[in-house]
Amino acid sequence: MSSTAHDLTLPDDSLAQVLEALAADVARSAGRLVVDERPDAVEVASTKSSATDVVTVMDQRSQDHLLARLRESRPDDAVLGEESGGATGTSGITWVIDPIDGTVNYLYGIPAYAVSVAAVVGDPTTHGAWRPFAGAVYNPVTDELYRARAGAGSRVVRPGGEERSLTPTGCSDVGQALVATGFGYAAERRERQAHLLLDLLPQVRDIRRIGSAALDLCAVGAGLVDAYYETGLNPWDLAAGWLVAAEAGAVVGGLDGPGQDLTSACAPGLAPAFPDLVEEGTRRHLRG
Ligand code: IPD
Ligand code: CA
Question: Rounded to whole angstroms, how far apart are CA atoms 238 and 92?
């Protein structure tokens, strides 16, 4: 594979296969660490963008674990993670990792958090200049592992090793759609997100706020919800879930593609209406 800054040429499938297996393996081992060593009282180590945007000791430990494992197997790849520490590389491949997606659920002991690991090409810090090609999202409480690679579909591996390919729902009516979403940590953004939600709520079946963007995207792929949208996501929240949803057959988009402005995913039958609805709402409430 050549590797200019924004070269989105994918590696060949034999390498992608190896990297998908590595993503699955490291996501699983970090997930075991996070759940097996979760203290009864999880302590907040620090806060980031607001007083409710917390980092626990285990967020950092999980990231350190992922970084060490990835550096060991793939020393020439870069790593971009949510917490402090990362790595530069020369291979043109970057691992985009979220050591605990759903940190607030982790803090409270709500069983909806995950480790998200994706191998991407391009520059994951620039909107529209990158794409994931192999990845895994692991929920260590339910022991469910979602995995995918470009062109090969996506699967969930359940406890005991049972593996199933993912398929979105057959929903084609926005009025019948169960829609997952999430909110950021900054008060000003949350207020704008509430206005968008206010427009949307009367037009859909109902809303789910599960608390992990990575699991939300996998849920669209798995047909557990009909659609998902969120504004303000970072690359680590969405990289692996984007791939899992898209490879399952969901339609994944945003404003000029998935990213910070908007990330949406929906069952194919909702593609004529849902993306336009959330794009229009985002332009009205979140931009400007
Ligand atoms: C958050 C979760 C949440 C989403 C937020 C994310 P974190 O990630 O994915 O569901 O609504 O936008 O920041 O902080 O738990 O890693
Ligand atoms: Ca996250």
Answer: 20
